[in-house]
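Lecture notes, unit on binding sites. The following record was shown on slide 14. It pairs a sequence with heme C.
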Amino acid sequence: MATARQYRYRWKSLRFGVMMIALITVTVVKMARGDAQTPVPATTAATAATTANAKLFLQQCGACHSTKAGEVRVGPSLAGIMGKVAGKQPGFTYSDALKRSSMKWNAATLDRWLADSSAAVKGSIMNYRQADAAKRKAIIAYMASTSGKSGK
Ligand code: HEC
């Protein structure tokens, strides 16, 4: 036979259990919401790769270049740069060398440019060298992915 005291104890532990479940549920829901707010949820391998490429771009190029149209930093905006002729972005004063190059930006020309920009276009004023071909490829993939979004 359970005494009144034992019943009270059971009722208390039941209440405690219910409260804990409620607390855990709230926490899990909050965590899930927090995750949904992070800029790029790494839900698939593809988005994870894009995030890595974006990070690399930001780290290697972000100080001098934005991918927002018209945003000039040390260098011109690279919004939708794929397929464009070099040296034509508004609001930036290019070197004569790049302006006169009449080069079109694609995976091949960008790869040469990023491997050694001064050698690719003699007299250009961006001094960048990336010896790692995989990194160049990742950066170019990122620029291609932003080109799609910004229209041209
Ligand atoms: C220290 C600053 C600096 C860094 C870092 C830098 N750039 Fe540049 N970039 C410039 C400048 C300055 C120019 C203009 C060159 C000229 O006029 O000769 C330029 C030009 C360019 C152009 C030609 C744009 C056009 O309108 O034709 C591309 C493409 C480019 N950069 C890509 C990159 C990428 C990708 C990275 C990172 C891997 C990078 N740059 C890193 C300063 C920088």
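Take-home: The mean pLDDT is 86.
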